[in-house]
Amino acid sequence: MDVLKTVLEAILGAIGGSDLPAPSQRQFVAKKELSERDATIIDMLNSAGHEDVSFCICDPDQKDCPIVFASDGFCNFTGYAVDEIEGRNCRFLQGPGTEKADVDKIRSAVKNEKEDSVNLLNYKKDGTSFNNEFFLSPLYGKDGKLKYYIGVQCSVKKLGPGQAPANPGWVYAQGLHAKDEEIIHASKENVASLVAGVAAGLSRVESSLLIGGDDRK
Predict the structure, then answer these.
(1) Please, which pLDDT band fits residue 49 given cuts at 50, 70 and 90?
(2) CA 111-53-182 angle, 5° bins
């Protein structure tokens, strides 16, 4: 199952939006040609109404796999400006409480060009820690070669697996850092019909869906 595409379709579909680009939204424009599947994923994230989704794009062809694009949602949540993020490896989100085992898991996914998820402790610019549910996936070109990595971040209430229902609507609500339980409930209802199709893919990347940043090499 194509986990990344299925999950993002469910997440973005849960809050609607438009197929048209958002005029006030910064958008990622790939400099390397992407496969149809991965170009579709980027188009989904660039479309209107999805400005708060926290994600970044990293370039493995550059030294230390730096971030080449950080979404508005990523900047707003972490407190960093774009020029403080782009050009750096995602390890700057680490801090004294970040577990080496979690970092190693992300490093292994990057090395082996595989998608994975990990729940880890990260830090905002002001030093505030947050529990980051992180989903990482390679993006390929039409030639089948690796072009980028995408990392999607989500703040959750606690560290550890097993806390996230297999429900993309819940993940999106958490990704917006929603404080109103009614918003979370509404998101769940909007994607209820999609849960069964996503569940098998979610179990393959453990029960934790998303999201932290292509951390560190």
Answers:
(1) confident
(2) 125
| Beta carbons of 103 and 120 less than 8 angstroms apart | yes
Residue 3 token pair:
């986990």
What's the one-letter identity of residue 150? I
Exposed/middle/buried for 198, CB within 10 Å: 0-12, 13-18, 19+? buried
Whole-angstrom Cα distance, residue 17 to residue 190? 13
pLDDT tens digits, one per residue of 69-105: 999 999 999 999 999 999 999 999 999 999 999 999 9
Output the six-digit token pair for 153. Answer: 């971040």
Q: What is 17-66 written as a DSSP string?
A: --SSBPTTS-----SSPPPHHHHHHHHHHHBTT-TT--EEEE-TTSTT--
Whether the predicted model's global pTM rises above the 0.90 cut: no
Higher pLDDT, 60 or 44: 60
